[in-house]
Amino acid sequence: MERCLLCFEELPAADSWFSFLFPKWVRxxxxxxxxxxxxxxxxxxxxxxxxxxxxxxxxxKGALCLDxxxxxxxxxxxxxxxxxxxxxxEMKEVMNRFKFRGDAVLIHAFANEFREIFRQYFSSxxxxxxxxxxxxxxxxxxxxxxxxxxxxxVPMLSCSLVRVHTEKQSQKTRKQRIAGSSPFSFLSSDRFxxxxxxxxxxxYTTGKTVRQLAVMFRERGAKNVSSLTLCRS
Length: 233
Ligand SMILES: [Zn+2]
Ligand SMILES: [Zn+2]
Description:
By secondary structure, this protein is of the alpha/beta class. It has two domains: 1-36, no CATH class; 38-232, 3-Layer(aba) Sandwich (Rossmann fold). Helix content is 33%, strand content 16%. The protein is built from nine helices and eight strands. The chain has helices spanning 13-21, 31-36, 66-73, 89-100, 111-121, 134-140, 144-150, 174-179, 208-219; strands at 60-61, 64-65, 81-86, 126-129, 161-163, 184-186, 196-204, 224-232. Strands 3-8-7-4 form a four-stranded parallel β-sheet. It has a two-stranded antiparallel ribbon with strand order 1-2. The chain has a two-stranded antiparallel sheet with strand order 5-6. Strand 7 (196-204), helix 9 (208-219) and strand 8 form a beta-alpha-beta unit. It is globular, with a radius of gyration of 19 Å. The structure holds zinc ion (ZN) (2 copies). The site of one zinc ion has 8 residues, from helix 2.
């Protein structure tokens, strides 16, 4: 007997029968939970992967959202971001259980789709999960980005990238947040010449973190830097 990974309800037999016929599409999530999640579909911003249908005409320009038009004016460093789901209330609850209550198993609910989107856009990329600070890693016991990267059909690229512990963003003033420099650094002289680097994380919010990292990887020779996240706000 199989249970939904999100609500633990028993999955109906019909679903098992379906998954027997179509094992590629097996998703250990019940229909009720599935319908509450908001999968990103249709036309998306070519750069950040935001659904364009939800934006008013004044907030998009051609195939880009206005945020990415602005990043472009400063010299865009990120090739593209793609995300599977919108960070809606249901997904917030899922992430809360995953990250803060340590329910790491439930990430497998998204394994097939995560692999699928990787194959669709990023098969020529080498995978780097965005690191946590040592302090945060000790507190949580695992790095959610690393668990997501482990779902992919390729090994992770080993590099010396680390994140230095900083105060929580919410405890800083707006001015401190904007002035704050990158919390990341490389511990050794890694080179990424002509490599395509794919950064993995759980949530894409403003896109600032992945762009800070894109600058650092490109300074060390990377050809393209993109990101793949489970959800986006
Ligand atoms: Zn369910
Ligand atoms: Zn965009």
